[in-house]
Amino acid sequence: MSRKFPKILLSLFGLFFIGNVRAQTTSFPAENMLSRIERIDETAREKGKSITYESRFLEGVTVRPLRTMSADIETWLRLSLENTPLTYRKINADRFVIVRRNHEKTAGGYLAGKITDTFGVPIAGATVWVQSVQKGTMTGLNGDYSLPLSVGSLEVEIRFLGYEPIRVASVEIGEKQTTRLDVALKETNVSLSEIVVTQTPPESFIVGALRAQRNTSYVSTVLAGQEIERSAANTVRDALQLIPGIAATENNGIIVRGAGGRWNEIALDGIPMPNYDPAYSIFSFDMLPVSLVDNIRLLKSSTPDIPVSFGSTMTDIITKDIPEQNFVQLKAGFQLNTQSTFQNQRGRKRGKWDFIGLDDGSREVPENAVQIPATHFRIFNRKAPPSQHYSVTVGR
Q1: How many angstroms separate the CA atoms of 111 and 28, rounded?
Q2: Euclidean distance between CA atoms 230 and 225, whole angstroms
Q3: Of 210, 265, 304, 359, which one has the fewest beta carbons inside 10 Å?
Q4: How far apart are CA 144 and CA 129, in angstroms?
Q5: How far, in Å, CA of 113 to CA of 184, rounded?
Q6: Which of 270, 61, 275 is nearest to 153 (CA)?
Q7: pLDDT of 18
Q8: Beta strand 50-52 with 95-100: parallel, antiparallel or unpaired?
Q9: Residue 71, C-beta contacts closer than 8 angstroms, at least 6 positions apart
Q10: CB-based contacts of 170: which residues, under 8 Å, 6+ apart?
Q11: Which residues pair with 136 in a beta bridge?
């Protein structure tokens, strides 16, 4: 009996030791990082510890199986976060915070490949995105891409409009290695809702000019280029007569509602024009053809963007943009008046080239006044022709 007692005691001690070892062994399966941290956090709360983390950092990260004999929470965290884009910080003995690693200080590799469709045609502009590290890239013209990533097992998502997105889990990124991932996207039917295309009419149109008058913070009148084209105006001087309350004087000045030219500022594309007469605003409106004018604005109130010399009004002539390509534009216009056109009209005899502004010589005064023909003083009847205007515009 005395010989069997040590053997029995040794067997009982061995069973107790094995049971104690098995009780201290903790196992975790291969799973999503979010599930692993939730399980560790549940155990940590039972021991009076806490783990702080953001779920969006843990999504898409796959962690390997873990088997350890340690019951320390910090050991579980350290082993679980190894070779992943995550790490932890120890605030105190009972509190841990999970954060992302600093990629500049973490050794990593590259994820590279080519994105094509099911026919092998490269897709340019496809998005390659890794949610766990909030990092991604786009494919080039040949469908190729290259993305530096930290070491670990990551989930990669590939997307492109008109194709079904693909998620590839457990993509292993090795240290200083390039992992190849080629993906063929499958086309999908994309149904778009109704698309409404809106455009604001420019101020060269009458509708745009009226909109500009309503939306500005100052009192103004905008003369659209479309309205100028419909008139018989050939120069800006003629077009100014179309604006209510404005009159052009013979010395190239303007009078706005009784205010003389001294108080009327003249600008071209918002830039005040120089004036050689300090007492009168003068500008050669005749040298600007209406074919170069987009719109004319008459500002009747003061705002901070108007020049300080502004006293009464400001006339701003807005020219057209530089043409994208060379052009030559020929334009002819006619106007009829039911009360005068083709009606009898009495007047002096007209020359045959009067319609283009040239004299045919019939008005020349002879050297001998006695030889002046009587037709110079006769009154003739003729039919009043329609009003005509012609213009040639060359854009370079």
Answers
A1: 28
A2: 9
A3: 304
A4: 14
A5: 11
A6: 61
A7: 46
A8: parallel
A9: 24, 26
A10: 62, 153, 155
A11: 129
Over the stretch 298-325, which tens digit does the pLDDT of each residue have? 887 777 777 656 566 788 888 888 777 8
CATH architecture classification, 23-100: 3-Layer(bab) Sandwich (3.55)
C-alpha 174/C-alpha 259 separation (Å) is 82
Q: Structurally, what CATH architecture does the domain formed by 108-185 represent?
A: Sandwich (2.60)
Q: What is the 3-state secondary structure (H, E, C) of 20-39?
A: HHHHHCEEECCEEHHHHHHH
CA 293 to chain centre: 28
Quick one: tokens of 136? 């991604």
Question: Stretch 162-171: mean pLDDT, rounded?
Answer: 89
**Contact (CB, 8 A) for 265 and 313:** yes
Residues in the chain: 396
- Name the residue with tokens 């071209």: 268
Instruction: Give 233's strand partners.
Output: none
CA 52 – CA 95 distance, rounded (Å)? 8
* 285: its two tokens: 């409106």
Strands (E), 94-151: 95-100, 108-117, 127-130, 135-138, 144-150
- Angle (CA) 226-228-231 rounded to 5° is 115
Cα–Cα distance measured from residue 201 to residue 100, given in angstroms and rounded to the nearest whole number = 51
The packing angle between helices 73-81 and 33-46, to 10°, is 170
Residue type, 225: G
In the chain, what are the domain boundaries?
23-100, 108-185, 206-319, 327-395
**Residues near 309 by beta carbon (within 8 Å), at least 6 away in sequence:** 265, 272
Its pTM stands at: 0.40
Q: Mean pLDDT of all residues in the chain?
A: 78
C-beta separation of 368 from 381 below 8 A: no
Q: How confident is the model at residue 190 (pLDDT cuts 50, 70, 90)?
A: low
